[in-house]
Write a structure and sequence with these properties.
InterPro entries: NAD(P)-bd_dom_sf (IPR036291), Semialdehyde_DH_NAD-bd (IPR000534). Keywords: Membrane, Transmembrane, Transmembrane helix. It holds the Pfam family Semialdhyde_dh. This is NAD(P)H-binding protein. This protein has helices at about 15-25, 85-105, 125-140, 165-175, 190-205, 215-220, and strands spanning about 5-10, 30-40, 50-55, 70-75, 110-115, 145-150, 210. Helix content is about 35%, strand content about 15%. The protein contains 6 helices and 7 strands; from the N terminus they run βαβββαβαβααβα. The chain is an alpha/beta fold. The chain has one domain (about 5-155, about 190-220): Rossmann fold.
Length: about 220
């Protein structure tokens, strides 16, 4: 059920998916204001846009400004970009959990986050385990409308070079056609599709909390 004159917060608007999400919200008549919390500016102006440049690891100090109808969290780093596991966890676990805490404290009833396919608390893979722990602890806050997107490998072009990821993307492009039926959720997915799905679930009645990549694809193409 779409309502008008909403305010949305985006965390991670300088990233690939977050950038698409920002464009969607700014062009959507249902949103009157879009608030960004970022380490660096998105470098644009818009009548709806309100931007706060902060250290996202200290997001919990922004409670007075963290007020909206919906929160979209597109935060995520990579092993190559953040090799230090302690810092990686502060980003991929700490920021989304802080956002959920602020939602609870400020009465924000909708939060939509990006996690990853394979996120599990008991995973032997550190990065999947961190995502699983993040999901678990975000859900502890019982935000009424919580949706966790679990995409497979995210496509698209990034400014920074990630050689290993680029190679995997080329391979995934070849394998996508072979991934059918139950394997469809392992297909790579475009960031714009994820962004569209995030906006859709925020604005419609949708019961599923964890949304795997193949379902994200279907929602994003509605």
């Amino acid at each position: 059920m779409e309502t008008k004159d909403k305010t949305a917060i985006i965390l991670g608007a300088t990233g690939l998916t977050g950038g698409y999400l920002l464009n969607l919200l700014l062009s959507n008549d249902h949103y009157k204001k879009v608030i960004l919390f970022s380490r660096t500016t998105v470098g644009r102006t818009h009548p709806k846009l309100e931007e706060y440049l902060i250290d996202l690891l200290e997001l919990d100090t922004q409670a007075d400004k963290f007020r909206a109808d919906e929160v979209f969290c597109c935060i995520g780093t990579t092993k190559s970009k953040t090799p230090n596991k302690e810092i990686y966890k502060k980003i991929d676990y700490g920021i989304p959990v802080s956002a959920a805490k602020l939602c609870k404290e400020n009465g924000i009833t909708t939060i939509v986050l990006i996690s990853a396919l394979g996120a599990k608390v008991n995973s032997s893979i550190f990065y999947n385990r961190v995502k699983g722990e993040m999901e678990r602890d975000v859900l502890k806050y019982n935000i009424p409308k919580t949706h966790i997107m679990q995409p497979s490998l995210i496509g698209g072009k990034r400014e920074e070079k990630r050689v290993g990821e680029w190679i995997f993307k080329q391979l995934f492009g070849l394998f996508n056609l072979l991934l059918v039926g139950p394997l469809e959720k392992y297909r790579s997915i475009e960031p714009e599709t994820i962004a569209k799905a995030m906006v859709w679930v925020a604005n419609h009645d949708y019961d599923q909390i964890r949304i795997e990549s193949d379902e994200i694809e279907k929602i994003g193409n509605k």
